[in-house]
Amino acid sequence: MKKPMRVAVTGAAGQIGYSLLFRIASGEMLGKDQPVILQLLEIPDEKAQKALKGVMMEVDDCAFPLLAGMSAHSDANTAFKDVDVALLVGARPRGPGMERKDLLEANGAIFTVQGRALDAGASRNVKVLVVGNPANTNAYIAMKSAPSLDKSCFTAMLRLDHNRALSQLATKLGKPVASIEKMIVWGNHSPTMYPDIRFATVEGKPAKPMLNDDAWYKDTYIPTVGKRGAAIIEARGLSSAASAANAAIDHVRDWVLGSNGKWVTMGIASDGSYGIPQDVMYGFPCTTANGKFEMVKGLEIDDFSRERMNKTLAELEEERAGVAHLLK
Ligand SMILES: NC(=O)C1=CN([C@@H]2O[C@H](COP(=O)(O)OP(=O)(O)OC[C@H]3O[C@@H](n4cnc5c(N)ncnc54)[C@H](O)[C@@H]3O)[C@@H](O)[C@H]2O)C=CC1
Ligand SMILES: O=C([O-])CC(=O)C(=O)O
Questions:
Q1: Domain residues of the chain, as ranges?
Q2: GO: which molecular function terms (predicted)?
Q3: Tag placement on the chain: N or C end, fewer CB within 10 Å?
Q4: Residue 175, pLDDT score
Q5: Is the CB–ligand 2 distance for residue 162 below 6 Å?
Q6: pLDDT digits over 118-131, tens only?
Q7: Is the backbone peptide bond immediately before 93 cis, with ω within 30 degrees of 0?
Q8: Using CA positions, which residue lies closest to atom 40 of ligand 1?
């Protein structure tokens, strides 16, 4: 029997939490032979804590063989103690008519507190995934609030965008999703994101000539992927939850267990590559192995891509300036 891994989930009584916890406890995230201990954080509010208890009762009722322990917390310091993985989901979601950056003020402050708590108590190799919006900037805040942890401990979720980009392209081409490789979504988890199919392959052959429809790519595909979150809110009245939880599982599973050479999009702190200033949390193509991610480097950036990449960067820089006061 392997030693249990400690997994913190914040916002555990929320919509995403309700889809996420059961899949983590069943072994879908860390492996079918990996016991887990869940450390669940909710706000110190009677209603939220009661709802969390209810979700934990349901998790108990599944009798998951891999669940080696579970605790409820209202303080980030105890929730993050010794954790190997931290999924920072807890934050206010947007409603109709809002952009994710409208959440900056409301949610940004959460991530300074949680970054400090991770800095103080988490495993030195903790893998942090920020899901709460605006995800890139919140991940940046958490990273900057945790100076004793390596920057590579912190990531933001662009996997939902990556999966949306795969699915939309697969449908258009009438090909299985699994036949598509080398997808990239550059930049911010916002409508400025740039789903880039220039390197994508379908059954090993280049996707772009197969698609052969630049107008659809630019005028339909890019905005459809970028605005999918808003389309879900419009249709459901609530923001994506099951698909977001699924993307979080995919992101952490690949980070921990490896992507087997496949490209995945992760929001990571830039090292200055591709002209993206150091430390900006930006969606980059990565491969993962041995519990580490590595950026795919040396890809050619054409004029169209440069323009798109600069646009999403400008938005991230603006968000970063908007939270500078939180990091003093
Ligand atoms: N990066 C991505 O691709 C996606 C991000 N999201 C974001 O994920 C976040 C959560 O979404 P939902 O689960 O739908 O929202 P929700 O409102 O259903 O649940 C959020 C939960 O977080 C809790 N919470 C708030 N502040 C907290 C704190 N400081 N510590 C611990 N818990 C806290 C709330 O009490 C609530 O139970 C939102 O910010 C949403 O915009 C949603 C979908 C995709
Ligand atoms: O759009 C939202 O606010 C929720 C989200 O991030 C997504 O579905 O991509």
A1: 5-156, 158-323
A2: L-malate dehydrogenase (NAD+) activity
A3: C
A4: 98
A5: no
A6: 999 999 999 999 99
A7: no
A8: 93
Nearest residue to 229 (alpha-carbon basis) of 246, 243, 218 = 243
Atom number of ligand 2 nearest to Cα 98: 3
Question: In this predicted complex, what is the ipTM?
Answer: 0.99
Active site residues: 189
CB of 107 closer than 8 Å to CB of 134 = yes
Residue 48 confidence (pLDDT): 98
In tens, the pLDDT along 294-314 reads 999 999 999 999 999 999 999
Structure tokens at 184: 């990239």
Q: Which residue has the tokens 């349901």?
A: 58
CATH architecture for the domain at 5-156: 3-Layer(aba) Sandwich (3.40)
Alpha helix ranges (H) inside the chain: 15-25, 46-61, 76-79, 104-121, 135-144, 159-173, 207-211, 214-216, 222-226, 228-236, 242-257, 303-322
For residue 241, the ligand closest to its alpha carbon is: 1
Of 103, 131, 122, 191, nearest to 10 by C-alpha is: 131
Amino acid at 27: G
